[in-house]
Amino acid sequence: MLDEADFRRRSDQALESLKQALIVAEDAFGGFEFEDNNGVMNVLFEDGSSKFVVTPNTPVRQIWISALSTSFKLDWSDSAVAFVLAKTGESLMPLTQRLLREQLNDSTITLV
To answer: What is the pLDDT of residues 37-73, one digit of tens each?
Structure first.
């Protein structure tokens, strides 16, 4: 398990990359609005149907995503050098991209 300082460094990097990708996707694809509130990232959908919440959970060293009525808990993987959802093997960016595509029913949404 990562120590707290290493977790914070790695999660800050991962979340900053996700934040930048969401800002670009918000402008390019629409359908949602991105907000960052003191480290808690919210994706609000224009139809008001729901929202996604992405947050680091330092005590358990995970990044949590609440989306589509489900909680996704990503752990650090040394082999992938990324936070990964054990159930599917998806890392943070591809998982978030898939969730956005499912929520908006738009397979063209890309996070890079």
So the answer is: 988 999 999 888 799 999 999 999 999 999 999 999 9
Percent of the chain with pLDDT over 90: 92
Domain range for 97 is 4-104
In a domain, 112, yes or no: no
DSSP structure class, residue 33: E
Q: What's the CA dihedral at 99, 32, 42, 12 to 10 degrees?
A: 70
Which CATH number goes with the domain that contains 24? Answer: 3.30.920.10
Whether 49 is covered by a domain: the verdict is yes
The pLDDT tens digits of the residues spanning 3-38 come to: 999 999 999 999 999 999 999 999 999 999 999 998
Find how far residue 1's CA is from the centre of its chain.
Answer: 20
Q: What is the DSSP string of 37-75?
A: ETTEEEEEETTSS-EEEEEEEGGGTEEEEEETTEEEEEE
Paired with 70 in beta bridges are: 67
